[in-house]
Amino acid sequence: MKKGLLGMMTAAAMTAAMVLSGCSGSQTAATTAAPAGETKTEAAKTEAAKTEAPKTEEKKDLLVVGFSQVGAESDWRTANTESMKSTFTEANGYKLIFDDAQQKQENQLKAVRNFIQQDVDYIVIAPVTETGWDTVLQEAKDAGIPVIIVDRMIDVSDDSLYTAWVGSNFLQEGYDAVAWLGDYLKKNNRSDDDINIVTLQGTIGSSAQIGRTDGVEEKMKDYPKWKMLERQTGEFTQAKGQEVMESFLKTYQDIDVVIAENDNMAFGAIDAIKAAGKTCGPKGDIIIISFDAVAAAFDSMIAGDMNVSVECNPLHGPRVAEIIQKLEKGESVDKIAYVQEGVYPADTAAQEKPKRAY
Ligand code: AHR
Fold first, then answer.
1. Which pLDDT score, from 0 to 100, does residue 17 have?
2. Pocket of ligand 1, candidates 129, 149, 203, 206: which has the most ligand atoms within 8 Å of its Cβ, to mutate?
């Protein structure tokens, strides 16, 4: 690690640790009594000197964290950005340099190089895609700056190029979606039906897309009556999700299930389905399976439009901060840490919504 072992702990790190642990620092209150043996005049002079002397300011030497964010493509991403920004505050002992890559890896590479130039204490990356990171992460390593990967994963030849990763098990999310559909069809006496599926994929090459697509594909093999008619990317946005769904609806008359690899694309798909004069949700023609479980997905389920949302938890700010604090203390951290996530079907949405934090 670059600067952070306990013996070398910066004032900023100590401040951060104190803020997190609720300590109030080590400054003592200035005394106003004259030291014994001094005359009143001397005491007054001492007092005046104390008043005039510059106050010992707590060093505003914050831990500098450069965060390269994917973009602002979805409700999930907004919640993730908010979690990072509300965690890495000056009050918590950090200076956050935030960069929005607008869903382009080239922007992320530029941002990381800027962070290296600015000699930040930590680089945090939510990577757009998995590949293409080796060179820039080698540069960060050469500069002695620890890199923490959050949310999506990276695919690098040398694992020492990053210190830790925390995020979702996207493959498991894909498995969960198939398990839910299998149970749902069984409950509705449709296990023997031919089931036609279309998928709105996320950004191609992102872990969220790869894991969900692969998870569904793998587990679908257990259901020979299910057919994947087509997969196309909707780039994790509502507008593109709607556009792709419109084209699916023109091509296929008999879609039974839409798998949208995030909630925002599902919202777009639902708009397209309604505009085409079809219905969706538990009482409709088309089953909608989604991922993320953001607040608006619960509204959609309560409204009867969406069938299920498989959770992807975006509240990574405190998780990344915990990793940084451990590193600052010279403690070891898990190289890979998966977040626990649930599956939220429409029939539980009304009771679950009030408990949701995003
Ligand atoms: O990487 C997490 C995915 O990215 C979320 O499912 C999606 O909404 C976001 O854009």
1. 32
2. 206
